[in-house]
Amino acid sequence: MVLAIALAVAFLASLGAFFAASKARMTREAVAGVPIDWQVQLAVGTDPVQAGRSIGLAPGVKVALPVWYGDTQGFRARSQGTVQTTGPGKVLGIPLNYAATFPGEIRYLVGARDGILLAQQTAANLHAGEGSTIAFARPGLSPIRIRVDGIIDLPAADSLFQAIGQPVGSAPQAPPDNVALLPINLWHRFFDPVAKVRPDAVQTQFHVGLAPDLPPDPSAAFVQVTERARNLELELAGAGQVGDNLAAQLDGARSDSLYAQLLFLFLGIPGVILAGLVAAVIAASGGERRRREHALLRIRGASPRRIVGLAGAEALMEGLGGAILGVGAAAVAGKLAFGTVRFGASTDQAVAWAFGAAVVGLILSAATVLVPALREARSTTVQEASLVIGRGRQPLWARLYLDLWLLAGAGLIFWETVKTGYRVVLAPEGVPTISVSYVTIFAPLLLWIGSALFAWRLSNGLLAAGRRAISRLTRPVAHGLSGVVAASMSRQRKLLSRGLVIMALTGSFAVSTAVFNSTFRAQSRVDAQLTNGADVAATTAAEVGLPPTLPGRVRHLPGVLDAEPMQHRFAYVGNDLQDLYGIDPASIGQATPMSDAFFGGGHAGQVLGQLASRPDAVLVSDETVRDFQLQPGDLIRLRLQFASDHTYHVITFHYAGIVREFPTAPRDSFLVANASYVTRQTGSRAFQTLLVRTDDPPPAVAGRVRRLLEPSAGATVQDVVTELRRTLSGLTALDLSGLTRLELGFAFVLAAAASGLVLALGLAERRRTFAIASALGAKAKQLATFVWSEALFVTAGGIALGALAGWGLSFVIVKELTGIFDPPPEHLFVPWGYLMIVSLVTIGAVLAAGVGALRATRRPAIQISRDL
Questions:
Q1: Residue-wise pLDDT tens digits, 589-614
Q2: Minimal CA–CA distance to 816: which of 518, 437, 496?
């Protein structure tokens, strides 16, 4: 009893360690993922010096640098006898140490790292490079000519150019396509006169980095950062507004924590309940003897209060022992699985989790030992306590067919959830909204409970009315005694059904957790490959692309299975500039997996076949299809840059299908076309991405590819392992690997304990029957037929029903938590190796229980009866 209670307490408290580690990691990842914590925009006419002093003294502020924004009506450049112009843009004035202070804001591509820097897209529009001379217009004043020192990329452009003070719920502002960065002295020389003529055309911001002293819980960190931002706005007294990027990121981490709660409810609670059931079975196995002992005490004069007191003392000792042992085991498990012995993200949470788990252990002990004793002391006479009389009736739930109602309810809730496309975190029009429907939890819960009760109904019904079938099933083991064995099993159907249900519940828990965790792990790699492009990806932003000979050279590297080039161009769809990827549809799948979830309206092979069947075919996003009301086969006119004059010209395509996601593609709108057609129309064979599939460790292959690219400026090489460490689908910051180790280890222990222990206890309850049979002349071999027939029935039935229920639970959980996966899995991933090991351990535990029971039957019958 102490060990069973400790198992339940340990698992529950370990889940507290999971929350502590996960929430602390969520906060760390949120902080690390924000290049600029705050952007404080000053009101027109505010003194930057005084405002900077107030910002620097604000609580939590570690560093604050001024950044000036200036509007321009457009850029202009002359190249090879042609003139290129762009639309409106921004010119920023930044301090010299800006890139070092905020390293995630600027990525250097070509040329110098200081001076006049031009954004990659602007350089492509102007056909400009290092050393080019360009001009930009100033509102109300004459244009300015400047010489470009380097080309850069702005990875966090969305936040860098956000509209601070925008009303909540409004659509986000797209960053400008055309941007130039100037040293502060040049910016003031060019735009201070603009401020006098057009004050609305210039803005001043302070970019702020906060000290990493936030609480580990993302919700608490969100509250603290938000309060500090409001205090700063109060201090500035209307002279500035705070764009709180860190709070926005922490808000997303708070939504991720909802997934942790759902995982706890979906995967954690069943394990705790199952451990409690094992404890209940252990307590019930001694119930018959306990009733006889209580009857003997009452005959000798013990009052019901004294008996209840003894039972209470037993329950208290078992509960305290199990709680202490369980909390200690949880601390060890938390250290091994999550690297922490804390049970919560804060001290209060740690104490609450540890205390709550201990209380659960005490309640479990009281419910299984004290409550039955209390009930019997009040309602059972001495004679009733010492006898078992009459035919047993089916429990009330069985007479009401509760199991079938629960299964029907689970199916109805699941169907409604899938039909409505429910997601935990919604983002209508770019505004994240948390939408938790805890009704969805009832689908797997009702399925789990209903399947357990249905397993009891099947087992009990088969044993009660199917003696002939049981006789045939046990004939290979019982031989001529199969009829007698079937009759004995029928009389023991309550005990056997109980063992089968516990076995089935254990199997369903092991299967559901293992399949879900394997599916998550597999989809995490798919998501990382989707972001990275392939096992290894080499990319460049240069218009000339990667070296033409690179694919052939990479294919000859050790560990490389295939290498496929992919074009990354830009195309205007109307006035919208979108990414365009040129591929070979027939061979792209050899370098990176093509999931059906990438495409709409068909399998990946079917959609790619449609793309390959027509040279001018193009795949477009859902948003583009809706915006332009496209129908299959419609003519689409796109503008792409030609190699001959570096200007954008119209090229005709035909709409062939929908692409939702694609390797290395952004999450917004993009296009996929045939590389051969793009090459022929634009006159450029250049490709900007090389996707590589490997059978060696991707980091090692990435290093080999990187050495080949050393002479190529601006090229980067990334591997999927590194990307996987940074990005996990949906549950970005949850330490699911630790949860996986905890759950699979717990399922492993529980499978062995429940299978062997429950069967052993069931056999131990029938020692009296075996002793009587032995006294009547039954041989050990004949007694073995009873033991192994019962073991075979419980084990085979429990494993079969548990596997079926576990697969159903996995399917329901994966479907309901679709928001975790990006893209959704095409099928469930089954860890056959782990399940095979669990099955072998379960069978081994059953064999050990059977052998132990047979050894017990070899003792003299009189000695066994005397012990009983």
A1: 999 988 888 888 778 889 999 999 99
A2: 437
